[in-house]
Amino acid sequence: MALSLQDQERVAQSQGWRERRIEVLDTAAGKVVVKGQRAPRHPARYRVLNALAGLLRAPWLKAAPMHGGARAQAVEASRLRALRAAGAPVPELLHVAGDHLVMQWLGDEHLGLLLQHQHPHALALWRDAADALLRLHAAGQYLSQGFARNMIVDARADPPRLAGVIDFEDDPLEVMTLPEAQARDWLAFLQSTLWTLPLAPAQIDAWLADVMRAERPEVRAEFLHACRQLGGLRHLPSSRRFGRDTVALQAVAAAAHRHARLAHTDSTV
């Protein structure tokens, strides 16, 4: 798929992405997403958080710098090319200009939304997303923001299918190792989905044990380390009246605590 010169000119002249940064347009190549550049951000906020992560020995807490401007655009273009070359489900990059890029449009529904609305296919899509994450890791790749909101679903398909993953303006490998970045992917995925899953804790535990057995040993070790550190947060309120972020963190911390406890039990048997 390629963007014609005519469409390139039309995109360049559009005011939509200049005003809102992101714009969806119809072209001869199909529907596309145009992304303008985000304003550069001061690195101080990342340095403080990453220093804290170092003190706590919690690399998964580190924030990859969101550089903004041309550098963030270059990061996203590079990551999209690398992920697509590895067979990952990401949008095809169609055009890169000096102040914007154009990529394939995947859809306007995301996994988080379907889970929250208890869509009849949401659980199957959640499992598909986890399987896709395993394949991506096996190919030596990783996400940037592995949250359910960035996992796009093609709701027009019958049944709905996972269309791909978006949002690659930062690169975690700037501040952490590949196993740490891949363990971070799982934490983001679980934090953004567990609180809405229609599964009992025992079902989640069995699934998570199977997933980790399928991961590489170094990723499994990083994830287990994170679980041991997160466990104390299981005592946070689990009622939704305390807000979605609190409930989501409590849910992943509770699952992390159970996973670490089960892993310890298995190691002593």
Provide a descriptive summary of the structure in words:
- The chain is an alpha+beta fold.
- 50% of the residues lie in helices and 12% in strands.
- It contains ten helices and seven strands.
- It has helices spanning 5-13, 16-20, 44-56, 69-85, 111-116, 122-138, 178-191, 201-214, 217-230, 244-268, and strands spanning 22-27, 30-36, 93-96, 100-104, 109-110, 151-154, 161-165.
What does the secondary structure layout of this molecule look like, with pairings?
Elements (H helix, E strand, L loop, with lengths): L4 H9 L2 H5 L1 E6 L2 E7 L7 H13 L12 H17 L7 E4 L3 E5 L4 E2 H6 L5 H17 L12 E4 L6 E5 L12 H14 L9 H14 L2 H14 L13 H25 L1
Antiparallel strand pairs: 1-2, 2-4, 3-4, 5-6, 6-7
Neighbour order of strands in the largest sheet: 1-2-4-3
Any idea what the radius of gyration is? 19 Å
| Gap from first CA to last CA | 55 Å
Q: Total number of β-strand segments?
A: 7
Low-confidence parts, pLDDT < 50 over ≥5 residues?
Answer: none
Structural class: alpha+beta
The oligomerization state is single chain
Continuous helix count: 10
Q: What general form does the structure show? A: globular
Helix content: 40-55%
